[in-house]
Design goal:
With 274 residues, the protein is α+β, with helices and mostly antiparallel strands. The protein contains seven helices and 15 strands. It has two domains: 167 residues, Aminopeptidase; 86 residues, no CATH class. The strands form three sheets. It has a seven-stranded mixed beta sheet, with helices on both faces. A five-stranded antiparallel beta sheet has the order 8-9-10-11-12, with no helix packed on it.
Length: 274
């Protein structure tokens, strides 16, 4: 197998590859799969990803078959601050069992490390039946889950990361976060808990250690309870809004002030077997 960077000319093949791989490994309807693959791997999407310096894209080619079908695997990841996040990993069902998934994963991790990522993680849709088992083979453990929009539908997504990543990341980015109470509008801090109030009067808890960068100010994860067990969305620290939207590509947007975060972080990952 040969690995290379994809080009816009590969878009049609990548849509077909993602479609066949998701059909084999995801509990999703054909309509849902088509909606996701067209949006994520169509020509416009691939061109945007190729031009994004924070995105790592690689394809695996076989030396058999016609030119259009030679791409047998695909991996996509991003670097965001200290994190290297794997979003998609596909292997054509007809080529599984040949080590393509492992080769793509290891090559991707090396690229992320070279780009400055110190910590690795992968995101897996709950609908992906075997994705978690694949990443556990590389020492990753399920550390979190959240609700996102995928194909205009709300779905659960799991995060797999190094077992000690939470402590390491907190220590390494403590000074960078350094958010004081006065920098968080529409919040109230008592002791070590920062709260905000929704439009219908519900109190929610802002995790100031769980930050995503923004064009104007960071976004913070919001929970329904003080123990941070039930996630309820995100908080915009630029204006204090709790109406932040997040799509399957981890594009954050605050409708009140226009603050955005466009990491292609956090999409789904296929099991892509080995």
């Amino acid at each position: 197998m040969d690995l290379r960077d994809p080009t816009p000319a590969d878009a049609d093949r990548l849509v077909a590859l993602a479609n066949s791989s998701m059909t084999a490994s995801y509990r999703l309807s054909p309509q849902q799969i088509e909606q996701i693959t067209t949006a994520e791997f169509g020509l416009a999407a691939i061109e945007d990803k190729i031009q994004d310096e924070s995105t790592v894209l690689r394809v695996s080619e076989t030396d058999a078959g016609d030119e259009a079908a030679r791409i047998a695997g695909y991996v996509e990841a991003t670097v965001d601050e200290l994190w290297g996040t794997l979003h998609w990993l596909f292997v054509d069902p007809e080529h599984r069992g040949q080590g393509i998934g492992t080769e793509l994963y290891e090559d991707c991790m090396a690229e992320l490390a070279a780009a400055g990522a110190e910590y690795r993680r992968a995101r897996v849709l709950e609908a992906n039946t075997d994705g978690g088992q694949f990443f556990e083979q590389f020492g990753l453990e399920r550390t979190d889950d959240r609700r996102i929009e995928v194909g205009d539908e709300a779905r659960i997504e799991y995060t797999y990361a190094d077992p000690d990543v939470s402590e390491a990341t907190t220590a390494a980015t403590e000074q960078a976060r350094d958010v004081s109470d006065n920098e968080l509008p529409e919040t109230d801090t008592r002791g070590d808990r920062t709260t905000a109030t929704t439009a219908d009067g519900q109190q929610v808890f802002v995790d100031t250690d769980a930050r995503e960068s923004g064009t104007e100010a960071p976004f913070f994860t919001v929970y329904a309870d003080a123990t941070f067990a039930e996630q309820r969305g995100y908080y915009c620290s630029n204006c204090g809004s709790l109406d932040v939207s997040v799509d399957s590509a981890d594009r954050f947007e605050c409708p009140d002030c226009g603050n955005t975060h466009a990491s292609r972080s956090e999409r789904s990952t296929d099991d892509a077997y080995l």
